[in-house]
Amino acid sequence: MNALDAPTLLIANAIFNGFASFCWVLLAGLFRIAPRASWLMAGAHLCCMAAALRCEDCAPLPIEGFADLAALATVALLALALRRMLRLRQHWLDIALIGGAGALAVLWPLPGRSAPLIATSACMSLLALRATRDVVSGAGPGLARPVTVLIALPHLLLGLATGARAAVLLFAPQWTGLFQVDGAASGLLAGLWLALSGAIAISLMALLLWRLIARIQHLSHHDSMTGSLNRRAFDAELRKLQALRRRGHEHAIVLIDIDHFKRINDRLGHAAGDAALIHAVKVLRGCLRDLDLLGRLGGEEFCALLPHTPLAPAAQVAERMRAALEQRPLAWRGSETIALTASFGVAPAQGDDPLGTAGLALADRLVYRAKAEGRNRVCVADAAPVPAAAAPSFSASSSSARPAV
Ligand SMILES: Nc1nc2c(ncn2[C@@H]2O[C@H](COP(=O)(O)OP(=O)(O)OP(=O)(O)O)[C@@H](O)[C@H]2O)c(=O)[nH]1
């Protein structure tokens, strides 16, 4: 048996796809990683394995055109899995219609020996090209360009190869030796099929890996309940802004503490408290620019970092947040309304404060003052920077706080 003859390549393809299917089953069933997409991928590789076992030496064919049907199912399942992995909202209807049309051509054969083959090849080409378009248009800015190319390229090649196969069968049937020899696959087709299934398997694994890494990174930087930055990520961002300050970039710190939050927990339960925190973050986030950062410092205390923002505009942003929170109570379980207000402390970035702790301490004192003055208000520091050493006590601070705006 020649190592590069069609039956050998088809057996290699079947073994590879069987193994790939097993790996996706493990991911879906055991590790619950992207389960729906993984099940679809397991199915796609299984169909690919069935298509590869078409060679008469390997297994008897259950129905005429079984291999083409299995190959078509492979590409349709791949396209569906890809949409799931890319989290595209597009429906599966177009894939079902194209796949169904191809399957019909096999099960209810068109006249002519090669007509079903042409139809299934054309449908596979269409599905693979749509998958390529899905990758290019649906990847979005979140997907790194090399990853996009890595995923799109094998699908594009599959679309072109199956399209070329349909065209050759249609316009130059005398060339069918390129794809078929005496009704069995040629070495070229078998080799191409093996290379493409390998490339597609690698590209989808790469996509899954990339998504996992992105998810882990997100989880390590964000508070899992509210989606705002967690304390560690917030501190890192604050340090970065403090470093930029030395190069002349101003930023402001707005510390936010929800008022009487304990009462919500006590009156309506912890779940209501959690919902109130999620709602508050949504409202606060809506008042900020894309480049502003919102972090959860702990419990019901949040902090907004406003890059390139002097104190006066920062005070206006804080007032906007305060008013938005007051005006948008949370509807809770139909009958209840949870009114939310917060106290705000607005401080400029401090000099000689690489960690940003002096700025935070000043904002914290301003929040205490807002609480002491009756809550649901904004207290703003004096524009004059406060020396870090002067920070600890509110009364000793050189920054006078005042209700703002
Ligand atoms: N539901 C819920 N409650 C939390 C969470 N984190 C902290 N809390 C509660 O938040 C409450 C904070 O209470 P306090 O520090 O007394 O503050 P407060 O009731 O908002 O009062 P003031 O800040 O003085 O207006 C505590 O009861 C905490 O248990 C959380 O993630 N979910």
Structure, briefly:
This protein is α+β, with helices and mostly antiparallel strands.
Provide the fold topology:
Blueprint: H1 6-30, H2 35-52, H3 66-85, H4 93-107, H5 115-138, H6 145-171, E1 180-181, E2 184-185, H7 187-221, H8 231-245, E3 251-258, H9 261-268, H10 270-286, E4 293-298, E5 301-307, H11 311-327, E6 330-332, E7 336-338, E8 342-348, H12 357-372, E9 378-380, E10 402-403
Helix pairs in contact: 1-2, 1-7, 2-3, 3-4, 3-5, 4-5, 5-6, 6-7, 9-10, 10-11
Enzyme class: transferase
Organism: Roseateles violae
EC number: 2.7.7.65
The CATH architecture of the largest domain can be given as: Up-down Bundle
- List the ligand species: guanosine-5'-triphosphate
| Fraction of helical residues | 55-70%
| Secondary structural class | alpha+beta
The chain-level mean pLDDT equals 85
Low-confidence stretches: 384-405
CATH class of the largest domain: Mainly Alpha
| SS element count, helices | 12
As a whole number of angstroms, the C-alpha radius of gyration is: 31 Å
Terminus-to-terminus distance: 86 Å
* Total number of beta strands: 10
Major β-sheet, in short? 6 strands, mixed
Order of strands side by side in the largest beta sheet?
A: 4-5-3-8-9-10
- Give helix and strand order, one letter per element, not per position: HHHHHHEEHHEHHEEHEEEHEE
